[in-house]
Specification:
The protein is an alpha+beta fold. It is 48% helix and 23% strand. It has a 5-stranded antiparallel sheet. A 5-stranded antiparallel sheet has the order 7-6-10-9-8, with helices on both faces. A hairpin with a 2-residue loop joins β1 and β2. α3 packs across α4, α20 packs across α24 and α22 packs antiparallel against α24. The longest helix has 57 residues. The protein is rod-shaped.
Length: 770
């Protein structure tokens, strides 16, 4: 190759190299221009971001401080730093502010050291002399960053979100924040535990809720923009608890729902309600009228006795009238005490609401005659409680009781016996004047005696036997019923008086003790015993005499009667002699009957006559008596008739003694009846008895004699000893009956024997009738 070719080649190469260098330079320029534009754009972006960061820091009044090895310098927020430095009382320098934070509190120093040395985040509120500073620290790269903000006056002491969340988690009651639709967005630990989820959002997603009514309450509070509350029974940890839910709308949206456990409060409220109901029920069952007026003086409660006492309508009382309205209605119906100035009386009555102290009881005398005790008492819940007691019956009973006590005391004072009443506690409750005289003590001394021992000390001078008083004390104070059994006895006093005593337990636990001086009585009894013995001896002598005389007389009388009958049947006697013999026999027979009557009366008086009881036909008894008396009646010209009812039947008695009764009555009737007269025997049954009548048409019995007709020896003027009617009366009474006389002078007489149909036990043997 030639040089020209080489030159050309070299030129071409140089040109190519120049072209390539130019092209490379142009490419590098474009690349450098693009990189420069990128760097400028990045620098502008960083400048903008820096400006935004500074603007944001300035806008939110926060200061950002960077901490590195060279120290601390302010990144942004010069005004906020100056405000924080003023609060901490430090220079407006980043390094000085950090130093002031470290020196403010050891806990602050520990948290900042953790941030500077290990990059641990921190957040706290630093308290300075002039307020608080909110401090938040983070580590980024090789530097630590602090953001400081002065706390507002109303936010001083408020925790941050983390601390507040920790605080809420420490609550034992559920609390949460929900949206306006009731969906929970945050909940404390108690809420999550009660619902059974790990996050509040999970509860909404899984359809779980602590209580649907609480969710509805949150929705209602969000719509109303005001607090809403409700009490619900919710199962918590397996137990049924009463929770009060409070839903409060929050600034910025959402609703905060707080709960408080009011189980004990609700239990207490329920117990109080039951107690009030039981109290009201109890008041409704008492007899006294009760009314409770509230602080507004309206009727808050009344029992049924209140409406019944005043006659007020339950419907009107249910409207809760005022106290004044109640008084006005009662005055209209004249059921209040009469007063001259009712307005003044009513004002004074209502003014008692202002008196909180104890108020005295009053007595109201109502126009209808009732008396009420009025008790006023301030009510613990305000107002007044009024208690009306109708004491009309109580006052009447008290008056009767006082009158009874006065009559009792007056009665005891009229007694001759010394009487004292001791209570179960041994105290002297009652005594009469005779007790004072008996023991020679004064009423003042007895009143001063405290108990039974004191009374004994007053009585010992008259009766020294202390064992007697100890036994008597046991009758008074011993609680054993056997010891308080009735007792009595006799003893002697120091002045040689004989006294008897007796103790009687009373129904109320008291004991009555009575003393009586029986000295004169014992002397009189001794005298009477001697006289009774003498009379007994005289009676025995009389009985022996009568028996002996009767025996001695019967023997010759029997002989006289026998020979007189023999002479009457003898031949050769003249009529005159026969009349003399008949008179002798009649007189002897009369004397024998008189002796029998005397013996019978003596036997009856001695209680030795025994009846031989048997069944007796009354008609036959009358017929036999008629036959025995027929001859004397014919001799006297008297008609003797018998009238007996067919149904008179039988009677229980002694046939001999009943015949003796009829014989005496018939003999008496024949003696009183003139010739052509009539003596009638009759019998009839009536009212459990048999009546035997002996009637005559004789001269009758004078009135002054009728009262003593059955006495002994009254009829001696008519012959005989006068024992016939007396013996009739004694024999009838021995049968358990009685005899009566109906007579008018000149109109005859009727003797009626009232005999029982059956004999009482012991009638036949009087000595057995004790």
């Amino acid at each position: 190759m030639t040089s020209t070719d080489l030159i050309l080649a070299a030129t071409a190469g140089a040109v190519c190299l120049a072209l390539c260098a130019t092209l490379w330079a142009m490419a590098q320029r474009r690349r450098f221009e693009s990189h420069a534009a990128h760097l400028k754009a990045r620098a502008d972006a960083l400048e903008y971001r820096l400006m935004d960061s500074q603007g944001a820091a300035e806008a939110f009044d926060t200061a950002v401080i960077a901490i590195h090895d060279a120290g601390a310098h302010l990144v942004s927020g010069e005004d906020a730093l100056a405000e924080c430095a003023k609060i901490l009382d430090a220079p407006a320098d980043a390094q000085a502010v950090v130093k002031a934070l470290v020196q403010a509190d050891p806990s602050y120093a520990h948290k900042l050291a953790t941030l500077f040395e290990r990059g641990g985040p921190c957040a706290f509120e630093a308290r300075g002399p002039r307020g608080g500073v909110m401090v938040e620290g983070r580590a980024a790269g090789t530097r630590a960053w602090l953001r400081l903000a002065a706390a507002a006056a109303d936010e001083t002491g408020l925790p941050d979100a983390g601390r507040f969340a920790a605080f809420m988690d420490g609550l034992v009651e559920p609390a949460w924040i929900s949206d306006a639709d009731g969906a929970p967005v945050w909940g404390n630990a108690a809420y999550l535990r009660a619902v059974g989820v790990e996050a509040a959002r999970d509860a909404s997603r899984e359809g779980k809720s602590i209580d649907r009514a609480a969710d509805a309450l949150a929705i209602e509070a969000a719509k109303a923009g005001a607090l809403r509350e409700v009490v619900r029974l919710v199962p918590i940890d397996g137990r049924r608890r009463a929770l009060r839910f409070s839903a409060q709308p929050l600034e910025g949206g959402g609703v905060g729902v707080f709960s408080s456990d009011v189980t004990e409060v609700e239990d207490m409220r329920d117990a109080l309600k039951k107690h009030v109901e039981a109290h009201d029920e109890t008041l409704n069952h008492i007899a006294d009228a009760v009314a409770i007026f509230s602080q507004s003086r309206r009727l808050a409660f009344h029992n049924t006795a209140f409406a019944d006492l005043w006659g007020l309508e339950p419907a009107w009382l249910a409207d809760r009238p005022t106290h004044g309205e109640v008084l006005d209605r009662l005055r209209q119906r004249r059921r209040l005490p009469e007063t001259v100035d009712y307005a003044k009386w009513k004002a004074a009555e209502l003014a008692r609401y202002e008196d909180l102290g104890p108020q005295p009881d009053e007595m109201w005398d109502l126009p209808d005659g009732r008396t009420l005790r009025v008790v006023r008492q301030p009510h613990p819940l305000g107002g007044m409680l009024l208690l009306y007691s109708d004491i009309t019956g109580e006052l009447r009973l008290k008056a009767q009781y006082n009158a009874l006590i006065q009559v009792q005391q007056a009665t005891l004072d009229k007694l001759n016996d010394a009487v004292a009443v001791f209570g179960s506690d041994g105290r002297l409750r009652l005594h009469n004047e005779a007790f004072e005289t008996f023991w020679n003590v004064s009423a003042q001394a007895l009143e001063a005696a405290v108990d039974f021992e004191g009374v004994v000390e007053l009585c010992v001078p008259r009766l020294h036997d202390l064992s007697f008083w100890r036994e008597l004390k046991g009758r008074v104070a011993d609680p054993d019923p056997q010891m308080r059994a009735p007792t009595s006895g006799e003893t002697r006093t120091s002045d040689n008086r004989i006294i008897v005593y007796q103790s009687r337990p009373l129904p109320d636990g008291a004991t009555l003790i009575a003393f009586a001086d029986v000295t004169d009585t014992r002397d009189l009894q001794a005298a009477l015993a001697d006289r009774s013995q003498a009379l007994t001896e005289a009676e025995r002598l009389k009985r022996d005499f009568v028996g002996n005389v009767s025996y001695e007389l019967r023997t010759p009388l029997t002989t006289i009667i026998g020979y007189s009958e023999l002479l009457e049947r003898a031949d050769g006697l003249s009529e005159r002699s026969r009349g003399h013999v008949a008179s002798v026999r009649s007189a002897a027979t009369q004397l024998a009957r008189s002796i029998d009557d005397v013996l019978d009366m003596a036997q009856i008086d001695a209680g030795e006559m025994a009846l031989e009881i048997e069944d007796i036909r009354v008609a036959g008894l009358l017929s036999d008596a008629q036959e025995r008396a027929l001859k004397p009646a014919q001799l006297g010209g008297v008609t003797l008739s018998v009238e007996c009812d067919k149904d008179v039947g039988l009677i229980r008695g002694d046939h001999k003694r009943l015949s003796q009764i009829l014989d005496h009555l018939i003999e008496n009737a024949l003696r009183q009846t003139p010739p052509d007269g009539v003596v009638t025997l009759s019998a009839r049954r009536a009212l459990g008895e048999v009546r035997l009548d002996v009637s005559d048409t004789g001269r009758g019995v004078p009135f002054h004699v009728q009262a003593h007709i059955f006495d002994r020896f009254v009829g001696r003027d008519r012959g005989g000893p006068g024992l016939g009617l007396a013996l009739v009366k004694a024999l009838v009474e021995l049968h358990g009956g009685w005899v009566a006389l109906e007579s008018e002078p000149g109109a005859g007489s009727t003797f009626t024997c009232h005999l029982p149909e059956t004999q009482q036990p012991g009638a036949s043997q009087p000595e057995f009738g004790f």
